[in-house]
């Protein structure tokens, strides 16, 4: 029908107005409320807290790994020309092997709760534990090079 105006049904118009009103009433960037992990009790909150613990441990791991690389670099520089260099290369190879080990070990541990709501918490808890152990190992490596 050329020249006729398209008609919108009242039902569709009402739905469009409702969607626009809801969209405009929400903040542009809704933020999740701050989670108090000391008082977490729902499984969802426990999962989030476990993951936050892992993220903190991972950030610390990256910081300590950089320190270990710096210590190994100093060792390699001190050994330049002796044929004994390779501390940084060995550390990088070890770290590259450790990451998939940690991930696979924690995936395996997650099977204790496979398919359940607490599986993410079990996996994240394992990741945190192994990451903290690796942090201790790297600290000992970096500090031990000074002896």
TrEMBL record:
Gene3D superfamilies: 1.20.1270.180. It holds the Pfam family LprI. The keyword Amino-acid biosynthesis does not apply. Residues 1-30 form the signal peptide. InterPro entries: LprI-like_N. Residues 37-138 form the Lysozyme inhibitor LprI-like N-terminal domain. It comes from the Bacteria. Keywords: Signal. The keyword Signal applies. This is Lysozyme inhibitor LprI family protein. It comes from Roseibium aestuarii.
